[in-house]
Amino acid sequence: MIRLTRSQLQIRAKDRPLGYLEDILAAASRIDGNEIFLTPEAHQALVDKYRGAVPREPRGFELAQNFAGAMARFVAAGVPVLTAEEYAAREAACRACIHPRDGQPTWEEAAYFGLGKCRACGCSRLKRWMRTERCRLDRWPELP
Ligand code: SF4
User: Distance (Å, rounded) from C-alpha 101 to C-alpha 40?
Assistant: First the structure.
């Protein structure tokens, strides 16, 4: 049996399409409080189904949680910001970014009253300045 915890899955579900958690619960052989048990076959079927799945855009409370987490990491690391050149490289990556779900630009320049918005993570351009943050689709260049 493969043992998962509901709390782990709730965190992971933020990077998975809608219905991920419900799928796992439906495939479970046994649910015991916070623990979810799957047969190896059911677990493998879910791994295959969600491999390479495009993450959905966070909404509402998730956005607020993500923002709070990003700020906490940023402050805890001593507020490390990018150089202007590093920022420009991230900006160029965002401008060239095509969303894998619909083939349209991922970056919306006019959203959030001109702060712009990434349709993959829901964040504005302010996130790009934070050395502690990463692109949700791993499309930013590596930092030195
Ligand atoms: S943060 Fe990443 S996913 Fe979002 S627009 Fe920029 S490169 Fe694309």
Answer: 29
Query: Ligand 1: which atom is nearest the Cα of residue 97?
Result: 8
Strands (E), 11-102: 30-32, 35-38
**Model confidence at 54: pLDDT above 80:** no
What DSSP line would sit under 36-64, residue for residue? EEE-HHHHHHHHHHHTTPPPPPP-HHHHH
Q: Which of 86, 134, 140 to mutate to test the pocket of ligand 1 (most atoms within 8 A of CB)?
A: 140
Q: Indicate whether this model's pTM tops 0.85.
A: no
Rounded Cα distance between 125 and 143, Å, is 17
Highest mean pLDDT among 4-18, 49-63, 73-87: 73-87
pLDDT at 144: 82
Rounded-to-integer distance, Cα 71 and Cα 40, Å: 38
Residue with tokens 């630009």: 105
